[in-house]
Write a structure and sequence with these properties.
about 300 residues; homodimer; eight-stranded mixed sheet; about 30% helix; 8 helices; alpha+beta
């Protein structure tokens, strides 16, 4: 048993969730604990979704591992993926960037080229942010999105008997990070947020819950199960060509969507080019427990806060 | 003439403002260039305000200069002050924190104690964020707030003939930073966001424009004048006890409000304990030019991005 104390993100977020009370009548419908917070504007037909994700030099990437435009794109993708997981339409972003001394003006410009190209492609207006100088590159991207009132896909909506699906093929990002080669390396450097899929899951498929695979299937599925107070039985997920079973089960930064639907719901085999694969079932049991082919699955997703494999 | 290239925040933000086009029909009413972005939710009686502000170890503070709870409080105050400047009511915040190796669990807890205490006192729900590890402390706080639809105080609303006012006494934060002593040092470490004043300016006084003094009167007044396409004539502002005229004119991190009202509007001498002082008049002239007692005032506010005194 490892003990990270507060360096275990979950202990700290649990403390913050308990401390960050939402008063009666607050327009904040959902606070800490899902991919996005939910805000209900007075009189509006929409709920708004808010998320913030950071990339830190030396933790999420190394100085020479990504081109500047890739980094900008990835920084925005991480937050867009949270909007996708809740079925939202992204509306705007705020970019807080701390520029290190090693970065040239041209690199800063190309970083924002990457942000702006993806922002334009997804209808996300760059509406503000903050610029600072520092020793290490640090970038925090906040995205605001919208969903019809009450319709956001949440982690806590899964029910016993729901069928569990995943988009895409898993393990490519971890494989690429390990090998720095080929399509897997490109996948690691240029992941995509599944925005259209998320809106399809919410609007057409009426999915009951969803989460994006940012930290690995085993950890993110555990989070979904914990939020819903249930367990899951799974088989091996579809693998990216060349990825190991462990990379597919535990590798992070996939940004595919894991979602649940009502029993018997007809899910298409593909959404555009993207395969949708049944990987299991939500069941009653110890909250958060995941059985792979009947055997308890160890949770090994990456925890960027503790910089350690996460072992609850 | 100094040339920072992109390290001059204004050159980069000007480029981003031009690139970050807001499409017709977007719910984003106002993007880059004011204290907050403005978002108009479909059908809502409110507009929403969004701002993001960062503190970076070694740039905005040194490791031993602030207690952890003070840092947490200050990180939130900076963003709340942007909400105050637009007359908004803060609703929620997202806190992205990068925790350096030197920080103990207790320090991280006390940092969030500072955030949570101020959040509770101002009705701001801590609704999410992101936690990471890193070499340097970095914290980005996004705050969302609300104002009645169309009522946000903006930088660009000043008109020729408008009277210019400032809250409080200026220079205390710069004095405290220099001396590390007494009330001025406390003022530097624990500034206040003027939320109630901002709401009073918007609702009761019908101020025509406002900005918060985060980077110094000379720089922030120049920004207000540039946004409004006008110039200003001022006298010396009220000084914090012991502060020099230069500290009062150019010192940053005051978080007082600078605002304009229609000619002849009756402005009370105090708002609660806070003095409100007439410091000048908005006039036609070269956009952004500020005359102090008839002499052009050099803009010397601190630019955290270029880490240099800002000389346009």
């Amino acid at each position: 048993v490892l003990d990270f104390g507060l360096r275990d993100e979950r202990i700290l977020t649990d403390r913050l969730r308990k401390s960050a009370v939402i008063p009666d009548g607050s327009p904040v419908v959902l606070g800490i604990g899902d991919d996005c917070a939910i805000y209900r504007p007075r009189g509006s037909a929409d709920d708004l979704l808010f998320t913030s994700d950071t990339i830190v030099e030396g933790i999420h990437f190394e100085r020479h591992s990504h081109k500047p435009a890739e980094l900008g794109r990835k920084a925005l993708t991480r937050s867009l993926s949270d909007i996708a997981a809740m079925g939202g339409v992204p509306r705007f972003c705020l970019v807080a960037l701390c520029v290190p001394g090693w970065a040239t003006d041209s690199q800063v410009n190309r970083f924002f080229d990457g942000v702006l190209a993806l922002a334009a492609a997804t209808g996300t207006v760059l509406a503000g942010g903050d610029l600072s100088h520092g020793e290490r590159l640090f970038c925090d991207v906040t995205v605001g999105g919208s969903v019809p009132r009450g319709a956001a896909l949440r982690r806590d909506g899964a029910r016993a008997g729901n069928e569990l699906y995943v988009s895409g093929q898993l393990g490519g990002s971890a494989l690429g990070f390990a090998t720095k080669k080929g399509k897997a390396w490109k996948r690691h450097r240029a992941p995509e947020a599944r925005l259209a899929l998320g809106q399809f899951l919410r609007g057409t498929l009426r999915a009951t819950s969803a989460i994006d695979l940012s930290d690995g299937l085993s950890l993110d599925l555990r989070r979904l199960c914990l939020a819903s107070g249930l367990a899951a039985q799974i088989v091996e997920p579809p693998r990216f060509p060349g990825a190991s079973p462990e990379q597919a089960l535990h590798g992070g930064e996939e940004y595919e969507l894991l979602f649940t639907v009502r029993e018997g719901m007809k899910v298409p085999a593909r959404f555009g080019d993207l395969p949708l694969t049944r990987v299991g079932t939500i069941v009653r049991g110890t909250a958060g427990e995941v059985l792979l082919n009947g055997v308890p699955l160890t949770t090994l997703g990456y925890d960027h806060f503790s910089r350690a494999r996460f072992v609850p």
